[in-house]
Design brief:
Elements (H helix, E strand, L loop, with lengths): L13 H7 L2 H4 L3 H17 L5 H19 L12 H13 L12 H37 L4 E6 L2 E7 H26 L1 E2 L15 H7 L4 E2 L3 H6 L2 H27 L7 E2 L18 H24 L14 H24 L1 E2 L1 H6 L8 H10 L4 H18 L8 H7 L7 H5 L1 H6 L9 H16 L2
Helix pairs in contact: 3-4, 3-6, 3-8, 4-5, 6-7, 6-12, 6-19, 7-10, 7-19, 10-11, 10-12, 11-12, 14-15
The chain binds arginine.
Length: 458
């Protein structure tokens, strides 16, 4: 008979049993479920709701279940519906009738909420560790390549040169905000729902504070209806992780582009690439491609849960069981992606020979030439036009700005002097951008030190 079978006279239809069961995916909440139950059982004893002997029996039984779960010895059954009923049944098999006292003053509605809060706190902590590792890898490559200049782009057209370190550190700051979002979401995950019962609280003189303290929650829900039906903290997590995946996806795109023969700026380590079954020459950037591809499923989980919650009346509804798979899959997608990316970034090789020739025929120093005229008193709009014409001339001659004769410059504007060739050097173009947050080497060094101190303050 089901644990709730008292008011039923017929067996559950097999399809219904399968359709409503969640054990296939909530089995992974076993640890949290048992830990939550241990805290509840202890509290029941402390409050005299069960005897201290009974409380002790429950705690010992649950602890032995935890040990067996960790060594893979527990077997869950689909006819026990979910993880909560499975654990209770197993406890009954182990310690007999006293197991039936565990559920005093509690409902599966507040129990499942507790389990998910415990899961969320742990998963957020793991995600922060993962993001930090990737940040370290970015800092490592930035430090290693402080003197490498790459073309910077807007509209994917060559714009102005930047330090590769500057480009990599841009991702560091995106990830820094990601950590902030995760830490913020953690505050709402860190709330204890138990004691809400099914929806209205409980008649037993329980101590919610005791459970809160034992499970190390910094707050508890002040409203029982809210406690059992709130999934906002999961939405916040899905939103923060969607943004992280989006960042990884942008980085993926750059790694894929940069490792192509057309760019050729980097080479990914063999250990992080795969080959082709047909084309012997291929070394494919599968990892960034897959991360880019998997971003969509995380966005999907966010949209799915928002939709589950939309229009849902208070308090618990079975719809809420749909909160789990998407959240689990999100972390199953994100955590390995972060780990792989840390490895990928740490082991990437910069092909400095290819990066340096990137500038031989480009015009990414054109702004500096216009700025040069402007500092000599030529209005910037006029300077812009003069340089635009020089660019056209250089293109026609098959050269770049540094390749034009000085006489061409003299004809274009009397404000040009011989020192323009210094201004045009790519290193000078980069060095000139010493503004805080700019790509000049001093500014990037300042930024790098700041990034390093952020990491060491953790
Ligand atoms: N498996 C359920 C869930 O994940 C647990 C709560 C069930 N509560 C209920 N009254 N049926 O939401």
């Amino acid at each position: 008979m089901k644990l709730w079978g008292g008011r039923f006279t017929e067996d559950t239809n097999a399809l219904v049993e399968n359709y409503t069961a969640s054990i296939s995916f909530d089995a992974r909440l076993a640890e949290m479920d048992i830990q939550g139950s241990i805290a509840h059982a202890r509290m029941l004893g402390q409050c005299g709701i069960v005897t201290s002997e009974e409380s002790q029996q429950l705690v010992v039984g649950l602890s032995s279940l935890l040990t067996d779960y960790r060594t893979g010895k527990l077997e869950f059954r689909v006819d026990d519906e979910d993880i909560h009923m499975n654990i209770e049944r197993l406890l009954h098999e182990r310690i007999g009738a006293v197991a039936g006292k565990l559920h005093t003053g509690r409902s599966r509605n507040d129990q499942v909420a507790l389990d998910m809060h415990l899961y969320a706190k742990e998963a957020i902590a793991q995600a922060i560790i993962g993001v930090r590792r990737l940040q370290k890898a970015l800092v490592h490559q930035a430090e290693k390549n402080m003197d490498v200049i790459i073309p910077g782009y807007t509209h994917l057209q060559r714009a102005q040169p930047v330090l590769l370190a500057h480009h990599l550190l841009a991702y560091f700051w995106m990830l820094e905000r990601d950590v902030g979002r995760l830490q913020d979401a953690e505050k709402r995950a860190d709330m204890m729902p138990l004691g809400a019962g099914a929806l209205a609280g409980t008649t037993f003189p329980i101590s919610r504070e005791a459970v809160q303290e034992e499970l190390d929650f910094s707050q508890l829900y002040e409203n029982s209806l809210d406690a059992v039906s709130d999934r906002d903290y999961l939405l916040e997590i899905l939103s923060a992780t969607s943004v992280i995946m989006m960042h990884l996806s942008r980085l993926s795109e750059e790694l894929v582009l940069w490792s192509s023969e057309e760019f050729g700026w980097i080479e990914l380590a063999d250990a992080y690439c795969t080959g082709s079954s047909m084309m012997p020459q291929k070394k494919n950037p599968d990892v960034p491609e897959l991360v880019r591809g998997k971003t969509g499923r995380v966005y999907g989980h966010l949209m799915a849960l928002l939709t589950v919650l939309k229009g849902l009346p208070l308090a618990y509804n079975k719809d809420l069981q749909e909160d789990k798979e998407g959240v689990f899959d999100t972390f199953d997608t994100l955590l390995p992606a972060l780990e792989l990316f840390a490895g990928l970034v740490n082991t990437v090789k910069v092909r400095t020979d290819r990066v340096s020739v990137a500038f031989s025929h480009d015009f990414s120093n054109a702004t500096d030439l216009a700025d040069y005229l402007a500092t000599k008193g030529v209005p910037f709009r006029e300077a812009h036009e003069v340089v635009g014409k020089l660019v056209l001339m250089a293109i026609a001659q098959g050269t770049n700005l540094a390749g034009l004769e000085f006489s061409v410059y003299q004809q274009a504007s009397p404000a040009f002097a011989k020192d323009i060739y210094d201004v045009l050097s790519i290193a000078q173009v980069v060095a000139a951008r010493g503004v805080r947050g700019g790509t000049g080497p001093q500014a990037v060094k300042y930024q790098l030190d700041l990034a390093i101190s952020r990491l060491s303050n953790q």
